[in-house]
Amino acid sequence: xxxxxxxxxxxxxxxxxxxxxxxxxxxxxxxxxxxxxxxxxxxxxxxxxxxxxxxxxxxxxxxxxxxxxxxxxxxxxxxxxxxxxxxxxxxxxxxxxxxxxxxxxxxxxxxxxxxxxxxxxxxxxxxxxxxxxxxxxxxxxxxxxxxxxxxxxxxxxxxxxxxxxxxxxxxxxxxxxxxxxxxxxxxxxxxxxxxxxxxxxxxxxxxxxxxxxxxxxxxxxxxxxxxxxxxxxxxxxxxxxxxxxxxxxxxxxxxxxxxxxxxxxxxxxxxxxxxxxxxxxxxxxxxxxxxxxxxxxxxxxxxxxxxxxxxxxxxxxxxxxxxxxxxxxxxxxxxxxxxxxxxxxxxxxxxxxxxxxxxxxxxxxxxxxxxxxxxxxxxxxxxxxxxxxxxxxxxxxxxxxxxxxxxxxxxxxxxxxxxxxxxxxxxxxxxxxxxxxxxxxxxxxxxxxxxxxxxxxxxxxxxxxxxxxxxxxxxxxxxxxxxxxxxx
Length: 488
Hints:
alpha+beta, two-stranded antiparallel ribbon
C-alpha cells in the first residue's frame, strides 16, 4: 500500500503558481481559485466564503452535525470522506506518511506535520499571557486553561476536575483499580505508562539522567529535577498557613496534614493513625516482624530502606555528614543533628513533670520511665529489669564476662565504652569538666555534678525512714546501714 502511494504521487499534475500536486485536472482548476481570490460558495450561517462546492458541503456538515461517512470496522462516523479514509488506516495499519528525517511513519498527514516540528524546533503557537510556545495548537488550548482555571473534564465518582481528558482517564483508574501497563519481568502493574517505563529502568539498571553538579546518575527526569533542587536550594512549594517552603510537592501535602490534623491511614492492629500511607506500611512491619531490606555484607535486615543505607555506610566507611564546628563526621543526618546540640547547648525535649531538658527525644523517653517506674528491658538470666536497653546490654556482660573495650595504655578491658573513656583520662590527665564557681576540674561529668551540690546545697538523696537528705547516693547507702543495724 505504501509503495502504491509513492508511485501514485509521481504521476500527479502540479499547480503553475505554487507547484502543489493533484491527481486530477479538475482539482487544479478548483485550487486556482485560491490564488485568484475567487470564493463563489457561501455559508449562509456566518457568510464564510469557500472556494468550491465540496468544501461548502464539508463546512455545512460542521453546523448540522451530520456524519455521512461510517467506518465499517468500528462504526465511528465522520462528516468528511477524507477523515474516514485517514481513520481506516488505523485498522489497516497503513502508514503512508513518512518523516524524511527519522523515517518514522504515520497514518495521518496532520500527525506527520506535528511530528516535523520536533526536528525543526518550530513552535508556531504562542500563549498571549505568558509567551510560552507550543508545536501543536491543541497543546496551546490545554495550556490556556491553566490561566483561565477552566477544568472541562470532571470525574463522575469524586467530582474532581481536570484540564486534560488524558488526566481524567488516568485519575479514573484510581477508582476502578485498573492497571493496564504490566512489567514483562516481574508482572508488576501500573495505571500510567510513564510509571511503567520508570519501573523498567530498575530491571535494566539504566540511569540516563546525570546531575550537572555532582554527576549522580538518576533513572527519570522528574527525579533529576527534584535532586537538582538540593544543590540550588530551590523550594517552590510553600505552605499558605505558615509559609514553610519545600522542594517537593509531596512534602508540602504531607506537611499540610500537620495543620489539618488529618490522619487518613490507621493501623488495624493497634489503631495508631498516620498522615502518610508509607509511614503506616513501615509501622505495620513492627507487628508483622517483616524486615525486607537485608545487608549483602553481614545479612542484617531492616524494616526501612533508609536504615539499610545508613547501616551500609558502616561497611563502606562513608560519613557524608560533617560538623562545621569540630569536623566530626557521621553516617546519618540525625546523628549529626544530635551532635550539633552539644555545641549549641540546645535541649528541645523537656520533661513535663520535673522540667529537666534533653538534647535527644530518646533520652527524654528513657528519663520519663524514672517517674513511671517502667522497666521494659529484663535480663533473661536474673530477671533484673532496666528502663534503657543500653543498660540491659551492659548488665548482660556481667553474666557473659564480655569486656569488648580495651585500654591501649594498660591493656585493661572494660564492659562499656564510657568506663574505657574514664580510664583513658586517668592516663592522659584530662579533666574536661570544670566547676564554674571554683574552677575545680574533673574527669567525669558525674563527679562535677556531685561537686556542684556543695555550692548549691542540694541534697537529692532522701532516706525513706528518717527523711535525712544527702548530696551523694553513696552517703545515703552508708546512712541506711544504721537503720538495718549494720556496722561497717
